[in-house]
Every structure is written in structure tokens, then in C-alpha cells.
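Practice problem 4.
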């Protein structure tokens, strides 16, 4: 908001006096809050700090001790600097005791070699201050309006961080209390350089107070949280400044960064905290970030390098490790209401994340649709794949429903891959296996024991058909085998496809199939004859029944 001493010296009103900095050049960055004209030697008692003092020196003392005391008094009260016009008291140069004292205290001391009108200097500086205040006020109003809108809209964390970075013109990072990156915006800089070694660098920056500036790192940091419960920090990453001053105990003294940036950062943090309070029923930011990365892998929305960079900053290294996609689907019918379904999935997702932490696994974990949670497990060179997955399944069974013998979810794993570029393949395979297992027959995949999981060989033909369900040749096969029967059911409202399915699921045992269909035997036999007439097949032939059974399984896979 206020100009620095260096900026004041560039004003035309002072440049006419040919200003020369003779001492305290290190303090030229000090802000000038006001300009005060005085010839009094005891002017310090009338100052409040931040003033630039203008004088001709006509009433300054002559002895060196008094001159040093004059400088000390100005420095103690926090004066921005001292400007002395030569010609009236001092002809060509300022007295050495005055210069030495100013240099010792770091107080900018400026000599004017040509006479200037002091009133012109005060007018120019004060106009600069007023203009800066108006500019600051407008900027502050824009900040509050922008973040009020983001609060009302319930903006995601990434959107809030992106807006802070845009308005500050500098990279911004949102991290959790473990110094893992939840969201970031590089503001045009290199993301790799920004996030490289983030956790280590962030742990070294701990300014005092909720908002603080670390000059050594160049970071402006503010806490994020509400009601006395902080859950993260918002960091504006700037350029490192000169070495920080130290206190008497040798500790670095942190100072507040630029006022505008501090207000901007605090407003962004408040918006993040408010949105989290208002949407506490939604998944945590960690889960949101994990979900974004998993979705980015599956949809190609993020590049491989971007996923690797973001995951590493989140504390989940994926490069150079074996990756296994895992998909978990909840059993049971749909919830009675959308909110109930969301709550159930959210709780299940957090339980999955808890099981991951309990087993000490490194993984991305997030909900991918209304009933599935995806996990990308990152295994190190000494991690045994089957043991890790089996332990994870057992831990999740114990957490979700420890008293039940029939697990409340289906867990499937894809084939392990050795490159992040192939992560999508293992996740898709896991999803297809889970889908096949979830809708498998009661005699097959449904009988998963607690602490176990499915892989592609476990779901056999059903799993193969799920893998091929998008293939046009499989869809053509289904239409060729079952098309007339499907058309008949659609036209007449009959259920002959169901009758055929029940017959084949019961091993072509007509009596058992009739009981399963809740029909009398004559009625069931009559419907089977109608199926034969419509399809033009003999259901007593094993090959015909095999072909139709495969088509029915493929139809189920295509419809799923």
C-alpha cells in the first residue's frame, strides 16, 4: 500500500534535488507511510513510525554523541529514513558521526545536493499514498467479491487455488497437515520445479501466527481451518529474499509479506474452510484429490507425467514401481434415496482408505461411480503382491462388517503393470472382473470367502465376456443367437428370455427349472417349446444350448 524509500527517491519532486544515499542503503525497501518536515532535534517523540523525515539540519547538534542519539531515536521509533538538504547547515557533505550512526542502525540517510521545495515532496508522496490506498481498496473489493461468489457456488479446492494464483500472479499450493499437496496452480511456472521435494521444503517453513512470511524461502503461508481445527495450509510461493534478521536468541524473525497478498491468501483460506464446513458430508479433500487422479488415468484427462507429478506431491509415488488396479463394488440393491447412496459410498470409501493405511500400503483411493471405489496400489521392490492384496482384503472385511460371513462388497484386482503408462489397463481389468464377479451366478463368483479377492481367471467365461462386451462382433453374435426371442418378448410382453435363462442355469433339468421359475411343469414345458419355435433350435442338443448360454451371458455383460 505504501511506497518504499527507494520509490520515493524516484519521484520527480525529489530527483530535482539530486539525492544521494550516503548510509543505510539496506533499508531502502522500508515503506514510507508519511512525510514529515521538521528541523527539531527531538522530533522522534512526535513520530509514530514509517515517516520519512525532511530537514535542512539547521538545528541539529554539533557533537558526535548527540548526532548518534538523534539517529538512534529515529531508528527506535521506526522512521523510514532521513533526508537532509545540503547548503544551509552542511555545505558539501553530511558529518561523519551522522553517517556512521545511520549505517550502524540501517536507517536510510539521503543527502540532497540541490535545493527542493519540501512541500512539493510531501504533496507528491501523499498523493502516491492516497492513490495506492484507493488501488488497494479496489483490489480488496475485487478479492472479496470474487471469493464471495466462490463460496456461494461451493467451488472445489482446485478452483479456489487457481483463483488465488491468478490474482497473486504467483504459484499457490494447498497442502494438508502432513505437507502433502492437495491442490496447486503453478501460475505459468514449471510444475515439476514447484513440487519437487515439496514435503521436505514445506516442513522447513514454519512462520509464527496463522499468517506469516518466511523471507528465506520467499513463502507467504496461512493456515486453513475453522472452529479451532486447522486441516491444512495455503502457500503463496515467491522468490527468496535477503537472509532474515534474527532475534536475540538467534531465531529468524518472520515478517508479514505484501499486505495485498496476505489479504488475498487469507480470503482464499477462509473460502476453503467455509466450503468444507458447508459441505462436510462430502468426501474429504484427500479423497477428492485421489479420485481426480484415478479418473484422470481412466479418462485420459491427465497426462502420465501430470499424474506422476501430482501423485508424488501427494505422497503416493507411482513411477518406477509395480502398479495393481483394484476395484471394490458394494453388494445389495440401490439405496432408498440418493443421499443415502452417497452417504453409504462415502463411508465405504473412507473405510477402504483406512484399510490401505492399516496395511501400510501406498495407493490412490477414490470413489469412481455410484457404487465402486477404485484403488491403484503402488508396490515397492520388496512388496509381495498376493500377500499385500490378501491382507488388504482381510483388513477391509474386518472394518466393514466383522461379524458377517458373506462380505458386503466384491474386491477384484487387475494384472500388475510395471509402468504408470499402463495403469489404465490394470484399473479397467479390475473393474471388469469386479463387474463380472458382482453379477456372477450363485454357484460361482458369489461365494467369495472373507479375506480373498477375484482376478480374471476366477470369473472364467463370464469374465472373458465382460472384457469383450464392447466388441461389435460379440454384440452381433448376441443378436444372431437371441435377436428373434428378444424381439418377441418386446412385442408381446412375454418373458421367454428369462425362461431360457432359468432352464440353462439349472443344467437343462426341466423339473428343477420349472420350480425355479415358479411355474407348473406343463406351463414351463410349453414355454420352452415356444422358445424352440421362435429360435429354430432343438434344446435337447448340447451344442445349441451351449451357444445360447454363451449368448445369454454375453447379453448380460453387454447390458451391464
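Answer key:
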Amino acid at each position: 500500500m505504501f511506497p518504499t524509500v527507494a520509490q520515493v527517491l524516484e519521484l520527480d519532486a525529489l530527483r530535482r534535488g539530486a539525492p544521494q544515499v550516503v548510509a543505510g542503503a539496506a533499508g531502502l525497501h522500508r515503506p514510507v507511510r508519511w512525510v514529515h518536515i521538521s528541523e527539531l532535534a527531538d522530533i522522534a517523540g512526535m513520530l509514530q513510525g514509517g515517516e520519512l523525515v525532511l530537514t535542512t539540519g539547521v538545528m541539529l547538534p554539533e557533537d558526535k554523541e548527540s548526532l548518534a542519539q538523534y539517529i538512534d531515536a529515529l531508528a527506535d521509533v521506526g522512521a523510514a529514513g532521513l533526508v537532509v538538504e545540503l547548503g544551509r547547515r552542511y555545505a558539501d557533505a553530511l558529518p561523519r558521526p551522522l553517517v556512521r550512526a545511520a549505517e550502524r542502525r540501517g536507517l536510510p540517510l539521503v543527502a540532497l545536493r540541490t535545493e527542493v521545495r519540501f512541500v512539493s515532496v510531501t504533496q507528491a508522496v501523499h498523493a502516491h499514498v492516497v492513490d495506492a490506498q484507493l488501488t488497494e481498496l479496489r483490489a480488496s473489493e475485487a478479492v472479496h467479491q470474487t471469493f464471495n461468489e466462490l463460496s456461494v457456488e461451493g467451488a472445489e479446492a482446485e478452483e479456489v487455488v487457481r483463483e488465488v494464483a491468478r490474482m497473486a500472479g504467483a504459484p499457490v499450493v494447498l497442502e494438508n497437515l502432513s505437507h502433502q499437496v492437495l491442490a496447486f496452480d503453478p501460475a505459468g511456472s514449471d510444475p515439476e520445479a514447484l513440487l519437487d521435494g515439496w514435503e521436505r521444503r514445506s516442513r522447513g517453513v514454519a512462520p509464527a501466527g496463522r499468517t506469516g512470511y518466511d523471507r528465506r524461502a520467499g513463502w507467504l503461508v496461512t493456515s486453513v481451518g475453522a472452529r479451532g481445527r486447522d486441516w491444512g495450509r495455503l502457500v503463496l510461493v515467491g522468490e527468496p529474499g535477503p537472509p532474515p534478521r534474527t532475534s536475540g536468541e538467534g531465531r529468524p524473525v518472520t515478517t508479514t509479506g505484501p499486505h495485498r497478498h496476505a489479504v488475498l491468501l487469507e480470503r482464499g483460506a477462509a473460502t476453503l474452510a467455509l466450503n468444507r464446513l458447508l459441505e462436510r458430508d462430502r468426501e474429504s479433500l484427500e479423497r477428492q484429490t485421489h479420485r481426480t487422479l484415478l479418473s484422470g488415468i481412466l479418462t485420459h484427462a491427465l497426462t502420465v507425467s501430470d499424474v506422476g507429478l501430482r501423485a508424488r506431491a501427494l505422497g503416493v509415488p507411482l513411477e518406477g514401481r509395480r502398479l495393481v488396479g483394484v476395484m471394490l463394488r458394494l453388494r445389495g440393491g440401490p439405496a432408498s434415496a440418493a443421499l443415502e447412496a452417497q452417504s453409504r459410498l462415502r463411508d465405504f470409501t473412507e473405510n477402504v482408505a483406512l484399510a490401505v493405511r492399516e496395511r501400510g500400503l501406498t495407493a490412490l483411493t477414490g470413489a469412481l461411480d455410484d457404487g465402486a471405489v477404485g484403488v491403484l496400489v503402488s508396490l515397492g521392490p520388496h512388496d509381495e503382491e498376493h500377500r499385500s492384496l490378501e491382507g488388504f482384503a482381510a483388513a477391509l472385511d474386518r472394518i466393514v462388517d466383522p461379524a458377517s460371513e458373506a462380505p458386503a462388497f466384491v474386491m477384484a484386482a487387475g494384472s500388475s503393470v510395471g509402468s504408470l503408462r499402463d495403469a489404465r489397463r490394470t484399473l479397467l481389468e479390475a473393474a471388469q472382473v469386479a463387474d463380472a464377479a458382482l453379477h456372477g451366478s450363485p454357484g460361482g463368483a458369489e461365494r467369495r470367502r472373507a479375506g480373498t479377492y477375484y482376478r480374471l481367471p476366477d470369473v472364467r467365461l463370464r469374465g472373458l465376456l465382460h472384457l469383450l462386451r464392447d466388441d461389435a462382433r460379440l454384440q452381433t453374435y448376441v443378436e444372431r443367437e437371441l435377436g428373434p426371442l428378444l424381439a418377441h418378448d418386446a412385442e408381446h410382453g412375454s418373458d421367454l428370455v428369462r425362461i431360457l435363462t432359468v432352464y440353462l442355469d439349472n443344467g437343462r433339468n426341466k423339473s428343477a427349472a420349472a420350480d425355479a421359475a415358479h411355474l407348473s411343469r406343463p406351463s414351463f414345458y410349453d414355454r420352452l417349446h415356444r422358445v424352440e419355435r421362435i429360435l429354430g433350435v432343438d434344446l435337447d442338443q448340447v451344442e445349441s444350448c451351449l451357444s445360447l448360454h454363451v449368448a445369454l451371458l454375453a447379453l448380460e455383460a453387454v447390458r451391464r
